[in-house]
UniProtKB/TrEMBL annotation:
Transmembrane domains' residue ranges: 67-88
Alphabetically ordered keywords of this record: Membrane, Transmembrane, Transmembrane helix
The keyword Transmembrane helix belongs to this UniProt entry's keyword annotation: yes
The name this protein goes by in its record: Alkaline shock response membrane anchor protein AmaP
Length: 201
């Protein structure tokens, strides 16, 4: 739950992983397999010559340099900017403010997200059905949403764990006097997750 598109996250990770895998396997093959190493040694001069001829055939206005270098530098600069933007966007989405009333003549009431997080964390940590829990607050399209992640003990049904969390969320709603949107994530065993446990305001 952050401001970066999930598909973009996975696509970048997949492409980077595949690129590193290919480069790593190629280097390993050249170093470990004599046939690959000899083939690389035989083909390297020809490839180098082809690249040199291409650079010579694309001069830039009498400068003696190829415009391909400028094109390559421009493409590299674009990729660097995209990666910097991608990295800078990671981790966003967290917010400290859970609820905020419209300002009136008497002032404005604000509920910090850490208050709800601590209340839920304390309530869930005492439950024997759970082996761990984590609560955080995110801003999703201008609305603060609680994300409650719990790991249920072996033998405990994820559905029962979800109901347990919902019970605590209803108690929090009663305390705050309003319904707080929440996403419940339950894991246990082979990382079983319930995707339908999302509450909307």
């Amino acid at each position: 739950m952050n401001s970066t598109n999930r598909g973009a996250n996975r696509a970048v990770i997949l492409l980077a992983g595949l690129l590193l895998l290919v480069v790593g396997l190629a280097g390993l093959a050249v170093g470990a397999l004599p046939t690959v190493r000899s083939g690389f040694t035989d083909q390297a001069p020809g490839v180098l010559g082809t690249v040199t001829d291409a650079l010579k055939a694309t001069p830039l206005a009498g400068t003696g340099h190829s415009w391909l270098w400028i094109a390559a530098a421009a493409v590299a600069a674009v990729f660097i900017v995209l990666f910097v933007v991608f990295i800078a966007r990671q981790g966003r989405g967290h917010t400290r403010e859970l609820l905020a009333q419209t300002p009136t003549e008497h002032g404005r009431t604000v509920v910090d997200g850490s208050v709800a997080e601590q209340l839920l964390q304390d309530a869930l940590s005492s439950r024997p059905e759970l082996v761990g829990s984590h609560v955080s607050t995110y801003a999703v399209k201008g609305t603060s949403v609680l994300k409650v992640s719990v790991s249920c003990r072996r033998g405990v049904s994820p559905a029962d764990a979800k109901d347990l969390v919902e019970e605590q969320l209803l108690a929090l709603d009663a305390l705050l006097g309003t319904s707080v949107p929440a996403l419940i994530q339950v894991s246990g065993g082979f990382r079983v997750r319930t995707a339908g446990a999302t509450r909307l305001a």
